[in-house]
Design a protein that fits this description.
Elements: H1 2-34, H2 36-43, E1 45-50, E2 59-63, E3 66-70, H3 72-84, E4 87-92, H4 98-104, E5 109-110, H5 118-121, E6 124-140, H6 150-154, E7 157-161, H7 165-173, E8 178-182, H8 185-193, E9 199-203, H9 204-213, E10 217-219, E11 231-239, H10 244-260, H11 262-275
Parallel strand pairs: 1-4, 1-5, 7-8, 7-9
Antiparallel strand pairs: 2-3, 5-11, 6-9, 6-10, 6-11
InterPro entries: Solute-binding_3/MltF_N (IPR001638)
Signal peptide: 1-21
Protein name: Transporter substrate-binding domain-containing protein
Length: 278
Amino acid sequence: MKKMAKFISIVLIMAISISVAACSKSDVSDKVQNNKLQMIKDKGKLVVGTSPAYPPFEFVIGKGGKSEVVGADIDLSKKIAEKLGVELEISTMDFDTIIPSLNSGKIDIAVTGMTPTEERKKSVDFSDIYFEGVNSVVVNESFKGDIKNESDLKNLKIGVQKGSTQEIYAKEILKAEKVKSLNTVLDLVMDMKNGNLDAVIMSDIVAKINKKQTSGIKIIENIELKGDQSSETAAVALKKGDNEELLKEINSVIKELKDSGEYDKILNKNIDTASKVH
């Protein structure tokens, strides 16, 4: 009986030991799986998602007979990749597919002029803010209406980029009756020039660039847009929940660029480049 009891005890101890070891391995595996920073370093590449139709943040130029994606967000992405000691791969897509691509693991991070709204924070994590601006209203030079306030604006046929904070503002804050959403700002401007829209809401920096690039349009001055989505900020987006160490690295890059004034130089350089692209 004593021998049997001793045997049972040994079996139980071995079972517990195996169980603990298995749990330990599982915990280690989970930690490795959830350490996005280490995964990026292991593969030696940072895959960044962006929608290259939003100059000066991301846009396409011709270079050496080929198309190249450039912009302030691309330069920021390069700085992040340098900090991590890995290569940079840019993956282009429509803006409204960015968050699904993050959550599916198709891309590591998104750097695409994305504003960290409360709704988006439910789906993804965000870095510190790297850009702050305001929105503007663009119309054809031939536009005869009088837009002095939001009440005047809400009655017009308004164009906004699909999936943008301008779309949220127009539909949910302004509650405009006629809102048309398209994939790119250029599509919106062309649609407005063709008479299908009265006005397009976009970032003030983007509006100034489009005015330089496109004849026959103007920016409405002295109209104050209000509400949570009436201004524009931008942050890096990451898949929710597995990015603490990666987030620290990204925030350190953003802080360094902003504190040194280098981000302003990056932005101004790309404003100048985008203004010359036709």
